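Two records follow; treat each independently.
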Amino acid sequence: MKEWFNKGEHWIWMSSAMVSISVVLVIGLMGMITYKGGIHFWPHAVYEVHLDQNGQKETIVGELHDEKTGHATDPISGVETPVDQYLFKVGNRDVYGIDFRWVNSNVLDGGVDKLSKDVLVVERYEYGNVYGHLISAKLGEKTLNNQNDLLALINQQVDKSTEIRSQIRHIEKIEIGKVNYEIEQLRFEEKKLRLKNEFTPEDAARIDEERSLLQTQFKEFQKQTAVLYKQLNGFGSITVEISGGQKLTIPLKKIVSLWQPNNMNFIEKIGFFGHSVKSFLLDDPREANTEGGVFPAMIGTITMVLLMTIFVTPMGVIAAIYMSEYAKDGFMLRIVRISINNLAGVPSIVFGIFGLGFFVYILGGSIDELFYDYALPSPTFGTPGLLWAALTMALLTLPVVIVSTEEGLSRIPRSLREGGLALGATKFETIMKIVLPMATPAIMTGLILAIARAAGEVAPLMLVGVVKLAPELPVDSIAPFLHLDRKFMHLGFHIYDVGFQSPNVEASQPLLYATSLLLVIIIVGLNIGAISIRNRLREKYKALEH
């Protein structure tokens, strides 16, 4: 044993054990997130339970989401006894006021039974799901009672109403958005000319003519939306009997989708799963981010990370090249390196405060005074936005890129530099054509680490551009297409908001795991792209290294 310790093999075994434990923990965490996030999109069976509390009978209809062992106090003896507790999602928030309800097994009358196959789940744009039995439907001017093909007819009407709602959203968000943007630009142009005392009668006539044309287009779009809204209101409604025998009338225009989970086969459940994932990725959030999709947050995250990468790469590479190739080794260079290493340990919220103070108030305010004075007092760049968030994240991840690039430059053999100089190349040409290309894999390693950290940071972004709900996307079809001054949504902040700021915690938990899974997938996807580029570059320059 003493010889075994002297050889240091115990350190090998301990290191292997720690690595194995870390791998198991990571795999377990990813498995939990994948499972919890995946079941959010799977159709859940609906159950009916009958309660009997001190002679008062009640029926609950909903999805069984959780069960655990708790304690209940006997009303007669006062003794606490262990009981099974069930968490049901009862929906009908406009009727019950809550989405979820805990039920103790000692008040159950007959246990937990699955409902009949004709139970209906209705997802609404407001007030959550409805669980009950379909009684009748009013489709247009016709009132139809429950029949075999009634659900298919209702689904057809819901699909049509969803299509019309999409047309309305396109007109209001895209077409009317373009018109409003152009009208606002005309107002800024007029204000700018007036400030410079260059506003001529010809300019006034031209601007009035363009504004009149845009207002005509605006009124035309309003007429189109009015017609579509009228069609939307004419789709009719359905009547559903919920628990307790109460009847609830739901207009079709307020329905996202409806299905019968207890009547689905496996193939239909797979189709439902795919449709739910598609809606999650492409729809906007609803109900204070506790329902709907995450499309704006996904676009905002990807846009910010790519923009951050564009900013941090040249800054980090140039700083590393200067310190490695040009700066003289001495006290000042050691101080700079120590400062860079210490900068990597600064809390991220400090970078957010710096970004707010320097980028937003000082730099952004100066840009507004120099170039956008006609828009004041409304700030253009003197307010948190996409540009400042990307720059703040670039500063946050800059030390990682610098250190990684320096390490890559230090591994390039000195003989290659001397060979380039001997052939008559300047130092700059040698660095740009020989040294830097061979260090590209190390640069990509730094970018991989930077992307992973920037995509998951939340605290600094809350100060420099991320909001709970953004009225517009940072990328759209309106020139200049990428709007650096706009606020945006972010998946990390969306997770924080859903998990810790939601008024309905139980309802938001499935969405929380699904959003976390999406964020991990995006980070892994970006990293895989960077790793593939790095590997190709490494193979390309491997021969030169030998």
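The next record belongs to a different protein.
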Amino acid sequence: MRFIFELAQLQQSATEIKQMLDQKIFKIGVLKRAMSKNKIIVLSDIHIGDNSPTVWYQKSFHEPYLTAVLDHVIKNASSIQELILLGDIFDFWTYPPDKRPPSFEQIIEQNPNILGPQGKLSQVLTALEGQVTYVRGNHDMNVTQEDLNKIQNPDYTIKLSPSDIYFPLGEDNKKIVCTHGHLYAMFNAPDTSVKFNPLPVGHFVSRAAAYELQQTLPPGKTVADLTGQTSPNSIDLKSLATTIMAAQSGFSVTDLLLNYITQSTKMPEIQPIILPDGQTTTIAEVKPLYSQLWQQWINNNGGARDGLLVAIKAALADAKDYYMGWFAQKLALECGADLVVMGHTHTPISGLKKGLIQYVNSGFECPSKPDIGKQHVNFIEIDTDSYQGAIFKVVNQQGSYQIEADSAEQTSVIIPGLSQDYSCYVTVENKSPILPIQLVRYEANEGHYIVAPTQFIGPREKGRFWIQDYPGITKGSEGRLIYFTGDREIMLRYSCPVGLSPNSCSGAEFYTSVDGINWGERNQIVNKGIGHPFFVRFVL
């Protein structure tokens, strides 16, 4: 009997050991798969709707392009960590005012090959084992998790990001940040101050544009048959730039915008507009509701001259890609990212000229038929090992849709050709393995801080900040700060002056550059101090 009991115990122990080994083998397998998955694919600005003539995405033309991208994801799933749907995937804006925008279910019904139970998006969910994340944009800012659950899959659902700013590597690793971009565009950022919360004034601009298209499109034609359909608002707002650039406090940018839109589209201000939730309004009713938008942006960004400069950039960010680049760099430095990925502007961007970070933009993923040669259906591939983003495109080769690497222009943080950037981009590295460093105080002698110096830098960590010159007649940028290192205070100085005076920095061991790529030797100010912007890396 004792023998039988001991044998049973031995068998139980062997079973437990086997289960433990199986668990370890499983965990090792998961880890290996995770380590091999070093790519993230980003799609944005597809604008899938109900295929009404005024909607940019037309199933009959664009579906093969989108299918090619999703097939590419499925085929390469073994190396893809995640698919990020980075806003404006669905479109609830580009509809005539007398038509209520479709429901999420109606859009699914009209696009079964992509969104149905056997559709490509469901196949992607299976191939990536559910690693698909949705980050909202402006044309789809009302999308909910309940909506996404309606894209049927037997095992997985698309996850809605709880924030419009998403860190795909997690909150503990913010080296990569993805956001649609509308948060930095005055006319398209969510507006919680009006009764149409969160619809911004840009929604009504798009509805007015659709009104004009409804009146002018020939029978049987859609917006996909027209050229130049690339503006995020459906309207070319560049002609407003001069007025906005000259704006001062108290200026009503929404009156200017809506007057311009109604005049250019010939839509009456009393034309009823049916909103996505079924409410009805008019441009005449909308105008006073958004009348404080300009001042709100000034106040929310520091007020006075600094707030005004941010408001100007935000008002033009839809039309001027360099202002979106400015906001991208600001975001990166605020959260510690090396790579920012955006959409929204419908302009693909491959990098930032003379910047401290990398910025890429996926562009416009439903160009019209006449534009398809000049523009491409693009997507972004992120390498999570190097924190680099690359642009790819879909090419139609006689009915065969192929994926190819694409090129795109780099952008800047200043108006190219008309202004210069006399910023100081400062990095402070704490080389101590034990002691943190703490900011005591800082000041700007010239210019202003876009991103303030880092308050606390832990052992073997770094902080980055940005002081920029004011536009117009300027002396450049110059600042100083004091850090406490645990046993002493250290004052750091940095300046990038206009004119013949050289760049300067002092206070600790440093390295410098004037392009962010080529760095000088220790304690050497490169290029004899001449050049801008000025990059400084202090080592404490």
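Discussion point: Residues 1-8, 25-34 have pLDDT under 50 and may be disordered. How would you locate this feature using only the token line?
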